[in-house]
């Protein structure tokens, strides 16, 4: 016979706490048994107690769950289990109504060995490479002289000292904004991702250095985390990876814009050497001085060669020649003009003589006269006039009036 159905809750008929606890337990139990991958953040083994308490943390997020298991289960699957180890366990969720807490009850625990971890990393490496996170074409070159450098590293670590001391030795005025985080353990990845977001949002930061000293493969696992690799890929600011020693190669090295073999190498790659730059500037100035002096010498020799030419050595020769040519042309022009004027004068005299020979005035000068009627008609015969006509007589000098009184 089934249990009676609980009526819906309302303000008039609220559910008791026990009913809510029962319903929560029922809903949570529906998940059933699952396989879980995580990192052990804490182990609590109480002497004489058969139950072991674990805190299982997500390597890529600030999330954790409590796990309970039998000591025999732990000793069978992972007898050497320590904090920070990666495990795979088979568990089901349980809700403890008395305390109102949720935990996982594990019946099998397997510690992930180094070989399996490396296999997982190789698989993740191929996945990220296929998505283009390792593409060299998208990698950005850090500025020649960054105004301010962001540094993510462990607090008071050797990596921090190496980066700061070497960078300031090379360029004393370089500025840093340092964010100290956990660089190993279950809290490392979330803290590093948060630090990346903070520095990437800072407009004054020109480049970010992610630095950590050497360590074992397990110690460097946070820097091969998928979430961290994607966070580095998403940064707008160039990121330099300086993790471990030269032989270490976590996945973040492939995603970062620049890979440095050590934290000291990161300082050398990011910050130029002031003394070396000054030496290069001196060399460049010397080359420039030599180039300018050489150019001036060549041009001076060229001017000397030009000045030694006759046209420039005695420039008055050209002027004298042109002056002589001008004088000859002037004389030639004067002669031509005189000849034309003389010829024109002779022609004018001849024409004037002919004109005078044909002019009636010359005839009048010889004693002749011109007789004209009153209408201006020249009288050539006596029959052309009648008695009493008025006539005009033109002489060589002056004129007379006459009246015809007979023929």
UniProtKB/TrEMBL annotation:
Domain (Exonuclease VII large subunit C-terminal) ranges: 133-354
EC number of the protein: 3.1.11.6
Keyword check for Hydrolase: yes
Enzyme class, broadest EC rank: hydrolase
Catalytic activity: Exonucleolytic cleavage in either 5'- to 3'- or 3'- to 5'-direction to yield nucleoside 5'-phosphates
Keywords: Cytoplasm, Exonuclease, Hydrolase, Nuclease
Compartments it resides in: Cytoplasm
Top-level division of the source organism's lineage: Bacteria
GO molecular function: exodeoxyribonuclease VII activity
Keyword Flavoprotein: no
CDD domains tied to this protein: ExoVII_LU_OBF
Domain OB-fold nucleic acid binding stretches: 17-110
HAMAP family xref list: Exonuc_7_L
Subunit structure: Heterooligomer composed of large and small subunits.
Summary of the function given for this chain in its UniProt record: Bidirectionally degrades single-stranded DNA into large acid-insoluble oligonucleotides, which are then degraded further into small acid-soluble oligonucleotides.
Similarity remark: Belongs to the XseA family.
Record-linked PANTHER family: EXODEOXYRIBONUCLEASE 7 LARGE SUBUNIT (PTHR30008)
UniProt protein name: Exodeoxyribonuclease 7 large subunit
Taxonomic source organism: Plantactinospora siamensis
Classification of source organism: Bacteria, Bacillati, Actinomycetota, Actinomycetes, Micromonosporales
Gene it is expressed from: xseA
């Amino acid at each position: 016979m089934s249990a009676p159905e609980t009526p819906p809750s309302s303000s008039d008929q609220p559910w008791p706490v026990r009913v809510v606890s029962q319903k929560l337990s029922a809903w949570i139990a529906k998940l059933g048994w699952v396989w879980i991958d995580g990192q052990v953040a804490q182990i609590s083994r109480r002497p004489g107690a058969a139950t072991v308490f674990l805190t299982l943390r997500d390597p890529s997020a600030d999330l954790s769950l409590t796990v309970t298991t039998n000591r025999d289960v732990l000793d069978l699957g992972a007898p050497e289990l320590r904090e920070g180890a990666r495990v795979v366990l088979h568990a089901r969720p349980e809700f403890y109504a008395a305390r109102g807490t949720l935990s996982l009850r594990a019946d099998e625990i397997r510690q992930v060995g180094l070989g399996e971890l490396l296999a997982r990393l190789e698989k993740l490496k191929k996945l990220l490479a296929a998505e283009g996170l390792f593409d060299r074409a998208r990698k950005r070159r850090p500025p020649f002289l960054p105004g301010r450098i962001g540094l993510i590293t462990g607090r008071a670590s050797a990596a921090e000292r190496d980066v700061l001391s070497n960078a300031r030795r090379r360029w004393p005025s370089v500025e840093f904004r340092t964010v100290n985080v956990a660089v190993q353990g279950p809290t490392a990845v979330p803290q590093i991702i948060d630090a990346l977001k903070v520095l990437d949002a800072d407009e004054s930061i020109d480049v970010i250095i992610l630095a950590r000293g050497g360590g074992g493969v397990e110690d460097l696992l946070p820097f091969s985390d998928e979430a961290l690799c994607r966070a580095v890929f998403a940064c707008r600011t160039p990121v330099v990876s300086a993790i471990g020693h030269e032989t270490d190669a976590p996945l973040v090295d492939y995603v970062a814009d620049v890979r440095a073999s050590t934290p000291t190498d990161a300082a050398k790659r990011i910050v130029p050497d002031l003394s070396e730059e000054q030496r290069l500037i001196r060399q460049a100035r010397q080359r420039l001085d030599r180039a300018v002096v050489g150019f001036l010498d060549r041009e001076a020799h060229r001017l000397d060669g030009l000045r030694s030419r006759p046209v420039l050595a005695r420039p008055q020769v050209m002027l004298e020649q042109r002056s002589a040519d001008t004088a000859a042309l002037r004389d030639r022009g004067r002669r031509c003009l005189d000849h034309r004027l003389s010829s024109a004068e002779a022609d004018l005299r001849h024409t004037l003589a002919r004109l005078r020979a044909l002019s009636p005035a010359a005839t009048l000068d010889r004693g002749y006269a011109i007789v004209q009627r009153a209408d201006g008609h020249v009288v050539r015969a006596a029959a052309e006039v009648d008695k009493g006509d008025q006539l005009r007589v033109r002489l060589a000098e002056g004129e007379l009036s006459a009246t015809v009184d007979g023929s």
